[in-house]
């Protein structure tokens, strides 16, 4: 059973697709395309062959005047201004305009068909088929517009077939084939209309999601900048109090400074992630000896005294890669910080190796592990495997999200594997080839 919400979405998508279809029709119909010029030439030649040049010339003049002057003016005046805001009004105007257009085309070939007799059946069938095809392609979003354009030639063909009832066998075969064509055309129009409606709804939802993401990024950037100024003032005054005081007051001032600096670090991470999410990341690739890079990085990284980092190099030495050193260090630093936060045995294992032309860097911890259904969630911004209010670990949930964005910007990938109760392993794969230095819009 379809819910009211789903029904509203379908109606909205249909109205949107219809307005876009009418707007596009108004745009393209004002230009005399090659297809319509060719159709006019064919109908002129057909009329000249069976009816003579006077009738053909008169119809050609009327066709040219209507297509180049009258039709564009009608569309500009009655369809285009209302296609977006007043779709029903634009639809009614389109029905009348296309009805006149179809009748004008009909006058170009119907008299010739009647004069030619059975010899003109092929030409008439081809022209009616072309009309139905254009109706499906161009006007499938509106039943009224579709039938206004296709009805005149269809009714004319049925009338001619009725006039030829003396040859029942031929008329019956022709009518059966024609009815089958009409049925296929109608169902094809419905399928195409539904497909276009779904595409338009998906496009609208995508644009809304992009606008929401941009607004979120702008909010994070503004909020972070606004909070940094008073927070720096708190840090400065707390340091002054700590320097000028002794005993408990100095100790309390030191705690204030420490907490404020921690909060400032969180703001810096939010601001950096906002830049990543907004596509402001610029990479400066340089050659990196992965083995030496990892040794230096671990030596410089602040690790708790009680935590031991075991560095293991595989037999297949990691290749020299071209990557941004600062961003690669940030990515691996996020993995080390995550492991330090969750390890339970004070031991972190970092493995360095290679697969093909890619360097592999894995960080293993001995923490509680991550449930299988949460492995995809942990790489989303502001998400953690444990989102409850009673979780034991603090954090914003930005580290892994930022690490994956950086990895993908470098042409690599960051994946996770975990066994609940035994720990987790995060593996960073970085290709050895050059990467682009252009700003990249990073996907989640």
UniProtKB/TrEMBL annotation:
Cross-referenced PROSITE patterns: HIS_KIN (PS50109)
Cross-referenced SMART domains: HATPase_c (SM00387), HisKA (SM00388)
Every Histidine kinase domain range: 222-434
Pfam families the UniProt entry points to: HATPase_c, HisKA
Record flagged with keyword Phosphoprotein: yes
Top-level EC class as recorded in UniProt: transferase
Known EC number: 2.7.13.3
Reaction(s) this enzyme catalyzes, per UniProt: ATP + protein L-histidine = ADP + protein N-phospho-L-histidine
Keywords: Kinase, Membrane, Phosphoprotein, Transferase, Transmembrane, Transmembrane helix, Two-component regulatory system
CDD domains assigned to the protein according to its UniProt record, in alphabetical order: HisKA
Transmembrane residue ranges: 95-116, 122-139, 146-163, 169-188
A molecular function GO annotation: phosphorelay sensor kinase activity
Protein name from the UniProt record: histidine kinase
Species name: Terricaulis silvestris
Classification of source organism: Bacteria, Pseudomonadati, Pseudomonadota, Alphaproteobacteria, Caulobacterales
């Amino acid at each position: 059973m379809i819910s009211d919400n789903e029904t509203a979405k379908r109606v909205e998508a249909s109205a949107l697709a219809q307005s876009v279809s009418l707007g596009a029709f108004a745009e393209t119909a004002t230009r005399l395309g090659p297809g319509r010029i060719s159709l006019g030439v064919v109908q002129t030649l057909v009329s000249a062959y069976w009816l003579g040049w006077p009738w053909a010339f008169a119809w050609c003049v009327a066709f040219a005047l209507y297509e180049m002057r009258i039709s564009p003016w009608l569309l500009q005046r009655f369809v285009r201004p209302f296609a977006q805001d007043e779709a029903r009004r634009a639809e009614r105007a389109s029905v009348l305009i296309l009805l006149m257009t179809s009748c004008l085309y009909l006058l170009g070939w119907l008299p010739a068909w009647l004069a030619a007799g059975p010899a003109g059946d092929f030409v008439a069938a081809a022209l009616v088929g072309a009309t139905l095809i254009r109706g499906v392609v161009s006007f499938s979003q509106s039943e009224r517009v579709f039938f206004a354009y296709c009805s005149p030639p269809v009714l004319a063909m049925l009338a001619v077939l009725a006039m030829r009832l003396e040859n029942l066998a031929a008329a019956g075969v022709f009518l059966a084939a024609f009815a089958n064509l009409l049925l296929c055309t109608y169902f094809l129009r419905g399928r195409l209309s539904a497909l276009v409606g779904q595409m338009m709804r998906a496009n609208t939802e995508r644009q809304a999601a992009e606008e929401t993401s941009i607004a979120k990024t702008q909010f994070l950037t503004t909020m972070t900048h606004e909070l940094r100024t008073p927070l720096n003032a708190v840090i400065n005054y707390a340091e002054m109090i700590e320097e000028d005081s002794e005993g408990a007051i100095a100790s309390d001032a030191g705690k204030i400074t420490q907490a404020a600096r921690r909060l400032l670090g969180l703001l810096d991470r939010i601001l950096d992630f906002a830049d990543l999410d907004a596509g402001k990341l610029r990479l400066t690739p340089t050659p990196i000896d992965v083995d030496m890079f990892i040794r230096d990085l671990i030596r410089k990284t602040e690790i708790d005294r009680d935590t031991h980092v075991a560095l293991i190099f595989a037999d297949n030495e990691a290749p020299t890669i071209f990557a941004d050193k600062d961003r690669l260090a940030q990515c691996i630093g996020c993995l080390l910080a995550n492991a330090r936060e969750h390890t339970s045995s004070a031991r972190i294992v970092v493995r360095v190796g290679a697969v093909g032309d890619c360097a592999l860097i894995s960080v293993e911890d001995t923490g509680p592990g991550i449930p299988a259904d949460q492995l995809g969630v942990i790489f989303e911004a502001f998400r953690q495997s444990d989102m409850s209010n009673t979780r034991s670990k603090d954090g914003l949930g930005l580290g892994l999200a930022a690490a994956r964005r950086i990895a993908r910007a470098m042409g690599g990938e960051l994946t996770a594997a975990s066994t609940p109760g035994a720990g987790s392993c995060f593996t960073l794969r970085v290709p050895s080839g050059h990467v682009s230095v252009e700003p990249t819009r990073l996907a989640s």
